[in-house]
Amino acid sequence: MTAPRAALVASRTGRTLLAGWLVLPVIPLLLWAFADRWTFPALLPQEWGTRGLDEALSAGAGGALLSSTLLGLVVAALATPLGAMAGRALASRQVPGATAVLAVLLAPLALPPFAVALGLDVLLLRLRVPPVVGVVVLLVVAALPYTTITMRAAYAAHDRGFEDEARVLGATRWRTVRSVQLPLLAPALAGAAFLAFLVGWSDYIVTVLVGGGRLTTLPLLVASAASATGNDAQVAVLSLTSILPPVALLVVVGSLGRRGREQDR
């Protein structure tokens, strides 16, 4: 077997194993989601149905899905451009004390989320910050390390020569950003936005402590349902609802990344 063919086989095998690693944990959830009755020692449900879906909808899954989606989108919309600006400034090496600035930006990763949320909750209450606004602000801060590091790496590898050529040919600064810089950085921006979306989508601690019950998201609903007994089908439906949208978004981000690499070639 030639070296290129061996590399292709190894790549396909790796993708297959990765897909299996991601899909296997979802199979029991799919079975439980449509199981009206599944008792030991049966290997498969004895009765199939949509009881879990009906219970999830009656528990407020639709509203929680909308809240989680909006929260993730708002966090991504705020943290991505902030991370892009910070990443560009750090990559240009023109920021005084760049190491200290980077350490401050990465601080949320080192601090315990529970302690931070519990401590800042008191401060936000004294400042009379609305709970939903407080949740968004803290999650944007939590997402900044991911967006900043992603965009810093992208700007470090970005060839400014394309922008210089566009300016020489008469393009304005805004048109250069819109027509040259953004298309070249689109895969990195999509990846940064995806990571920021996940921070808002999957958060539990900040939402429950700072939100004060004003914001019901899917993680809160899953935790509430899982704390009870006898509603395994409902928990499975809610868990699948929490998993599938990020997976679909990951596929879109991956396709953008492949398209960007093909354009570079």
Name its key features.
single chain; 265 residues; mainly alpha; MetI-like fold; two-stranded antiparallel ribbon; 12 helices; 2 strands; 78% helix
Describe the structure in your own words.
This protein has a single domain (62-264), classed as Orthogonal Bundle (MetI-like fold). Strands 1-2 form a two-stranded antiparallel sheet. It contains twelve helices and two strands; from the N terminus they run H-H-E-E-H-H-H-H-H-H-H-H-H-H. By secondary structure, it is mainly α. Helix content is 78%, strand content 2%.
Kindly name the structural category.
mainly alpha
Question: What is the domain total for the residues?
Answer: 1
Strand order of the largest sheet: 1-2
Number of separate helices: 12
Summarize the structure.
With 265 residues, the chain is mainly α. It has a two-stranded antiparallel ribbon.
Describe the secondary-structure layout.
Blueprint: H1 3-23, H2 26-33, E1 35-37, E2 47-48, H3 51-58, H4 61-91, H5 98-110, H6 113-126, H7 131-157, H8 161-168, H9 173-202, H10 205-210, H11 218-226, H12 232-264
Antiparallel strand pairs: 1-2
